[in-house]
Amino acid sequence: MRRRFAFLALIGALAGPARAETSQFDLAGPALRVSVTHQGATLPIAQVPQLATGDRIAIAADLPDDQSAHYLLIAAFLRGATNPPPDKWFFQAEIWTKKGRKGLSLTVPDGAQQVALFLAPATGGDFSTLRNAVQGRPGAFVRAAQELAQASLDRSRLDTYLTAVRKTVAGDPGRLERITPLLSRSLQVKINPDCLAKLPDLQAACLLQNQEALVLDDGHSNAITDAVNGPGADLALQLSATPQGGLGYYSPYIAAIRDVIGIFGSIRTAKYQYIPALATLDGDRIALVLNAPPSFHNPKSVLVTALPIVAPVHIPPIQLVEPMPQLCAAAKQPFLQVSGAPLIFATRYAHDLVLRVRLPGGRTVDLPATPDAERGGLVIGNDGRLPTDGKTPLEATLHGIWGFQPFDGPSVRLASPQPGQWHLAADQAAHGATVTLTGGVAACVSGVTTQASDAPAQPAAWKTTGPDSIGVTLPTPTAQAGGTAIDIAEPSGADRVTLARAPQPKGINAAMIARAVQRPPAAGQIPITLAGTDDIPSDAVLTVSLRADKGTRFVGKETIEIAAEAGGATATLSGANGLRLADQQVALVSVTPAAVLGASAFGPLRARVVRDGVAGEWVALGTLVRLPRLAQLTCPPDASAQCSLSGDGLFLIAALSATPGFEQAVAVPDGYPNAAIAVPHPIGGTLYLRLRDDLGSIARIAV
User: Fold this and answer.
1) For residue 325, what are the CA distances in angstroms to 178, 260, 374, 412, 414?
2) Strands 272-282 and 300-306, how do they pair?
3) Measured distance CA(422)–CA(536) in Å, rounded
4) CA 597 to CA 599: how far, in whole Å?
5) What are the pLDDT digits (tens) for 556-586?
6) Domains plus CATH for the chain?
7) pTM for the structure as a whole
């Protein structure tokens, strides 16, 4: 987490019983109009994350016509805590006059790092008094400007979250339960999962509690403000672990607010007190939000806010939620899940976002991309400009402008559904509870219905199991004479798969009643801990107990077939190689999957009993997972630098992260052949792995 320097005067401010009360900014203040011109291009302030030397800034007050109090608008460029700005870096406009209403036109001077704006009640000598205050204690104002900039960014994320949670949608009682995990990921805010266990009418009120503490450190926002002075020791966050500081009930937003309030309290004079003003941006309008009403009696209130810092551009680290996803080229609004850049959703810094698609023949087409925090990604506007008759997926790259700087984001594929693509996956039983269909474009599937014999069609439960496969739950009872038809709805129509009439099972059926997995530690390897209780390492010894169905029994003539969904052969076990009978009802099977199925076997693992050539129904045993052999993790002393992880079979890893939520994960390229890869620096000695054989389960290593 980013740390901030705080003055010793802040200790007193934090020692009281209040925790988040000082951060309640709910009083509407005055407004400003600001635009920035950079190398001939002009943008409203809402689209400008950072300033650069030579930028032209137009600033004007946006006060009501009946404004009675006279305010002086003052702009000051700052250049460091120990380097007071010269007189020529201060500018004023008497905004109650005809000339002053035109505002200020400024050029960012060489060496400036920050821009502080002041609205001060007009009194004799006010401009020189304020200028002397800034020059006398530049560090206080530098720090305050940095904290105000950070707090405004954090507040924008919080406001976006609150707006979404407060919105009511009639007829959708499950909306909050569906969107809050996505809002948390998009905006980097934390939610209380217990709220989602309440009745729908009570969820919103619960999710809105302790609002200021919801904001999490998102890394990129902090990088913007850290670019001026660099990180320091954050006294506020150290004190947060004490009873006076709230026992950890804290957030970067609260830390910034308490820092700046403590700073302003330490520089208060008999004539002036400084009130922080958070900036809410809309186009070229900055609406100031205050936490205290201004005073026009001594000490008079000076409103203080900050413009974006003067620093190199920091492009948002947009990340794909899943490695190289495949979107539907025929959909009206394909959706791309992304994370890692909350300011994309909470501000307008990123604009003109498009998905640039490379068409056959070398042409490109730009499809508009709109951030949607509630869905956790970007809505792609497809107006029919993509060809839908191509059998080869199209490559595309996210492109946009961050402030004035163009940037390229991650790449994706777009595929089109083709008639007759879907078919029953190999070795599937038509009468099973769930069947896997493969060959089509899973992203294009909008619904599935099934129809058994002459019965009416009915919606079927289904889920995506891969870019080109879906799992469909068949109706009960199972398919009757004439077979079951499965209709897959897609933007260009429907595809149908017809299952043959299901034969009545004649073999002996069994159910798994116990399972044991033993994987002895390997010398010289970093052990991998699997989080999924259903995962089975392919090199472990698997022992399974099977109980014969009621009315049947084992007679010693049976064999057990074991198979994985992908990559391997079917192994047959008998009394000579791993099958033992406990009695006539229970049989035990011991096997090392990799030894009997091959090193390429992975996915759902199942077994069935075969007797006299007749096979019973398959029994699910778990998910077979191949594990890489990790040899060594080498890390530099700098905790912000990446480490190097070496080993064999690194291609079996889909992504690595220092956090269990995979907020800033490193994706491992498909078929990665090398013996080492750069990974995040572990937090608390732990790295998290998402394995390709079971993307829904997260493993970890302790180093």
Assistant:
1) 21, 43, 19, 6, 9
2) parallel
3) 30
4) 7
5) 889 999 999 888 788 999 988 889 999 999 9
6) 26-152+257-306 (no CATH), 156-214 (no CATH), 319-415 (2.60.40), 423-499 (2.60.40), 510-625 (2.60.40), 629-702 (2.60.40)
7) 0.64
